[in-house]
Amino acid sequence: MKQERKYEMTAPQEQKSHPLAGRRMTGAEMIIQVLAEEGVDTVFGYTGGAILPTYDAIFLYNADRQDRRHEQIQLIVPANEQGAGFMAAGYARASGKVGVFIVTSGPGATNSLTPIRDCMADSVPVVLICGQVARAAIGTDAFQEAPVFNFMSPCAKHVFLVEEPEELEATVRTAFAIARSGRPGPVVIDVPKDVQNWEGVFRGEGKLHFRGYEQRMLELSRSRLSEESCGAFFELLARSERPLICAGGGIISGDAAGQLSEFAKRFEIPVVTTLMGIGSMDTTDELSLHMLGMHGMAYANYAVMDCDFLITLGARFDDRVAGKVQEFAPKAKMLAHIDIDAAEIGKVKTVTWSHVGPAREALEDLMRHGEGFRKDFSAWLEHVRDLKRQHARNYNRETSTIQPHQVLECLSGIVKGEAIVTTGVGQHQMWAAQYLDIRHPRSLLTSGSMATMGFGLPAAIGAQLAFPDRLVIDVDGDGSMRMNLGELETVTTYNLPVKVLVLNNRGDGMVRQWQKLYFGNRFSGSDKSLRQKDFVKTAEADGFRFARRLTDKSRLEETLEEFIAFGGPAFLEVMIDPEACVYPMVGPGMGYKEMITGDFIVGRNPVDDLSMGAPPSDSF
Amino acid sequence: MSTINPPASQSNSQNTRTLSILVENKFGVLSRITGLFSARAYNIESLTVARTSDPSLSRITMVVRCEPLLAQQILRQVEKLPDTVEAVDLTESNCVERELVLVRVKAPEEKRTTLLTEAEIFRARVVTATPDNYVFEVTGDSGKVEAFLDVVRPYGIDEMVRTGKVALHRNLSAKNGDTEPA
Hints:
The structure holds 2 protein chains of 2 kinds.
Chain A: E1 24-26, H1 27-37, E2 42-45, H2 52-63, E3 74-76, H3 81-95, E4 99-103, H4 107-111, H5 113-121, E5 126-132, H6 148-152, E6 158-161, H7 168-180, E7 186-192, H8 193-197, E8 199-201, H9 211-222, H10 227-239, E9 243-247, H11 249-253, H12 257-267, E10 271-273, E11 288-291, H13 298-306, E12 309-313, E13 334-339, E14 353-356, H14 359-369, H15 378-390, H16 404-415, E15 420-423, H17 427-435, E16 444-445, H18 456-466, E17 472-477, H19 478-483, H20 487-493, E18 499-504, H21 509-518, H22 535-541, E19 546-550, H23 556-565, E20 570-575, H24 608-611
Parallel strand pairs in A: 2-3, 2-4, 4-5, 5-7, 6-7, 9-10, 9-12, 10-11, 12-13, 13-14, 15-16, 15-17, 17-18, 18-20, 19-20
Antiparallel strand pairs in A: 1-8
Helix pairs in contact in A: 1-2, 1-7, 3-5, 3-18, 12-14, 13-15, 16-17, 16-23
Chain B: H1 8-11, E1 16-24, H2 29-38, E2 44-51, E3 57-65, H3 68-80, E4 84-89, E5 95-106, H4 112-121, E6 125-129, E7 133-140, H5 142-152, E8 157-162, E9 166-169
Antiparallel strand pairs in B: 1-3, 1-4, 2-3, 5-7, 5-8, 5-9, 6-7
């Protein structure tokens, strides 16, 4: 399909042309110029042979603005390109702006694949600029060459390989438009070194055209609910006795948290959220039932089992939410679904009512239409309150070992839902999701779908750079911390006041939990008790002036307080009970009725023991 | 050209879907789209790609063996790609479909007359001949092509090559890149 390609550019505007239009620049300079115009104040990345011209252009751009620091593009250099990707992702998740990272060809690009896929799976807008070998060398197994276009294509929202230098400027601009439009996602631009070095005329405007995509985006942006459709929704709500909202990450990326909470309160409908949806509704709100799913709150999952009308907003019935699809929300005879992505409607569950469009506008339309709608759900709300009371989260409060739940409960009491929290992946991630109050959107940043260990620390760095004055805490595990340990030094290099909390259970706890349940306690590969790593010394060596280990349960609260109050980078390792498990748990491929709640949460089904030792499901 | 065009669904074997995808004519688009099928381990039965009357667009016609619901799901994924203009399942629609086959058939002296007579039924043309073989060209929907191959198979098929199916809806689609000015 290689053809003579002529991208149409948008028609030149005659009236007010760009101040730099017509100026000669190198390709690298054009890249930086467009980044600046797209509002980029921070880029993350690691340099190398094929991206040298672009790194030089950043240097020169900033050198020209020595007396105007606010106009500079700050460059944050990680220990590894994967770190740069997760920093850009953390920046994007916390701020809603497009995160940018810039890496070299070959290993720089392959190291970036994991964060790109992670961003795709969680719908996070980032732009990755990769250096590539010169055009003439592409396909010759040149030094540091990798087929970026090929391996990024199935993992990213879109990939550009810039073959025509004249298209570079428009390509960079288009990449931002694609990353942030519709369902957001990662866009990769592969730029051969000779294209960076090429010199041409800067136009100051113009994008590449994607007829189908632009048309779809236009339709999406105009997509409002008709009176008829709103009417149909309220007919369902009128027929319902037990409605429940399930809010996902789409509410957060669609900036619709305010509308969600207004909607829920206006019609008095309780809300469960997915892991990605935590923060879309203040978890301390009376109507909030917190997280549902595999490790959701017992009461949230019971509410899902009991509801007769499930209103799903910006969520997608992932297998960690609906492990056994046919048994998910078994009493919900009606299902409404609003999503920005048409491909998600009916993908897993058949729906009664659906709308494709931005959640914010859709909820506003519904509220406007439903102004006169009255229905008393008080019996259901009372039932839900009972569920919350009877099946509250709980853990072993008697033991002398430090329980991770207690650490997070205590932390939550100190920060009161006002921090930005990032996590690694595993048990600590689930405990953080369960035990921290999260009051605002974009304040729990976690690798939900890909579940990439090592996400937490670089994401915290990115979030802190987006919000230098906010409290940013990385709640991490010892396994996840090891994955991107090199980024501890990045924290101190840039003197970021990130708080790094490692819950150390000497192993990969979530894997151990599964091995306990399904693999006869054979801890293959997951036991780290013989490892020699001294995390505190590591943090000290990397320049942390606050670096402590907590083993004494009685000093938990004061230590956490000092840790949070410390004015600068702080590292705290808490030695937790390695036997602690995450409950509740809905086994893989199982229905909610098979949920086990452990020894400390009251379950309402006498099936707990039956599920123990069940054969591992194929749907991991 | 045969005069009877049964609906595509009748001439399809079970669960074979004919998909028509209009895309920006750029490198990498094809691999991205076929990748959505290979990622789920679905084999593509046939594939044709060529530019449309608007040279900046290409039309992909793809035959895939999969459930209708799954085809629908994959098409929705296809339609999310920035390079996709339109993606439709033509299987049950009012479309015409054609495939071209070149087939080299053993044609000894004594069988040539009957072979040519039978070929005539299918409007198959001899495009070249050797003392031992005829090479036929036959065009038609899958049913006709298969029927022709069944007829010549007893003579001995040396080798053959098929273009894979192309299909076109009888009515103009809104986003059609194939609309020639009248």
